[in-house]
Amino acid sequence: MFLILLWIPAFVSVPALSQAPPPPPQNIHVDKWLLMWAPASQESNITYTVEYQSFDPGKWKGVPTCIREAITSCNVAVSKAESVNGCVMLRVRAERDGLSSIPVQACSRHGHSCSPEVSLTVRPQSMTVYLSRNHSLVQEHASQVKYRVYYGKAGELLTKSLDAASSVSIPKLEEGQRYCAKVQFLYHNKPFGLESCTQCEVIPGSKPEPVQPVVIGTVVFAIFLVLFIVMAYALICHRGKIKDCLQPVCQMPHFLMECHPDSQNLSSPTEERCDILSREVGLEFQQTSSSTSAPPTSNHPDLRFGSPFIAPQCHVSSHSEDNVTSAKTM
């Protein structure tokens, strides 16, 4: 009896496990109207259904060749006939024993005639979503076509969105965090065509701005200007002091001092000659006066023949006297 009670929960729990819906497909994308996906489970009894939606929101139709099929790709070109401008939205859901998973919409990875061409660039605290305006759909319906940009942190649902007519920059993002974005066309303000596949980038940190060359040039010019003003002031107002500082000291060479130890007492040649002549004239005058015994015409000792003769008043140096004495001795 006890064993029977233990078996009952086991049999009851089996139907509960079998009624769980299968996991949804992954990595759903379109490449030239070929829809591809990856199964989330390796169970063999799971099938997949592909649906499309044209311009009428909420009305999804199954692609006839891809309903409850055990496949991982589907040609959806047949859906173009029932769409506006050949553009549709696509989604895939997994099924098992009458239970369906959550449908997952497809995206365009490499660009599509019904999907925007998107690229991302990041800067500190911002991310820019670049949107090409050369798209055929934009050129044909320029005034009616816009973009809806979905964005958010990686790993989270992209619930935030904004509408724009061209490229848009998203500010106030956290540095070092990974942000993702995807874009879809809006035709008459309604979602239209395939979404672009999600792209993600890391927001970089702020870096110190390099010193601009203009600032460096200004500083160098200011330094040279100050130096020029200081040098001009010194040359104009202190020219005499600068000249005295730069003038070399005048000093007699040592070899000349050794050859003439009494060079400081030497007189000029003219002065020496004057001394010798005055000495000789004075001696001759004395000799002549004593021999003739002529009465002097004046009390002055240097008077001769009644006319005054004044001996040159020259300074007789000791060196000159020695020369005269030596001459007479000879």
Automatic annotation (TrEMBL):
Q: Where is the signal peptide?
A: 1-18
The species is: Echeneis naucrates
- What keywords are assigned to this protein? Membrane, Signal, Transmembrane, Transmembrane helix
Residue intervals passing through the bilayer: 214-236
List the Pfam families hit by this protein, alphabetically. Answer: Interfer-bind, Tissue_fac
Residue ranges occupied by any Interferon/interleukin receptor domain in the UniProt entry: 116-202
Gene Ontology molecular function? cytokine receptor activity
The record, for InterPro entries, names: FN3_dom (IPR003961), FN3_sf (IPR036116), Ig-like_fold (IPR013783), Interferon/interleukin_rcp_dom (IPR015373), Type-II_Cytokine-TF_Rcpt (IPR050650)
**Gene this chain is encoded by:** ifngr2
> What are the residue boundaries of the Fibronectin type-III domain, all occurrences included?
16-101
The source's superkingdom equals Eukaryota
Q: Name one GO cellular component term.
A: plasma membrane
This protein's name: Interferon alpha/beta receptor 1-like
* CDD domains linked: FN3
